[in-house]
Amino acid sequence: MAKEKACRRCKVITTGKVCPNCKSTDLSPDWSGIILVFDPAKSQVARTLDITTPNKYALKVS
Ligand SMILES: [Zn+2]
Fold first, then answer.
1. pTM for the complete prediction?
2. Quaternary structure per UniProt (predicted)?
3. Per-domain residue ranges of the chain
4. Mapped to the 3 state alphabet, what secondary structure does the chain carry?
5. How far is the CA of 22 from the centre of ligand 1 (A)?
6. 29 CA to middle of ligand 1, Å?
7. Which CATH architecture has domain 5-61?
8. How far is the CA of 13 from the centre of ligand 1 (A)?
9. What average pLDDT does range 18-28 have in this prediction?
């Protein structure tokens, strides 16, 4: 299984070296908690975290 990293800017979780969402390379291997957002408009969590794109996000990124 590939090591997943979380973007420090937008918290998207990715196995790549570049964030697929904001194109940042500022990725952290030290994260915890996963939020799956399918419909940001209907998700309270997504609104709280300012998420606008359906994706997999980390709850905490160090
Ligand atoms: Zn990002």
1. 0.85
2. Heterodimer composed of Spt4 and Spt5.
3. 5-61
4. CCCCEEECCCCEEECCCCCCCCCCCCEECCEEEEEEECCHHHCHHHHHCCCCCCEEEEEEEC
5. 4
6. 13
7. Single Sheet (2.20)
8. 8
9. 96
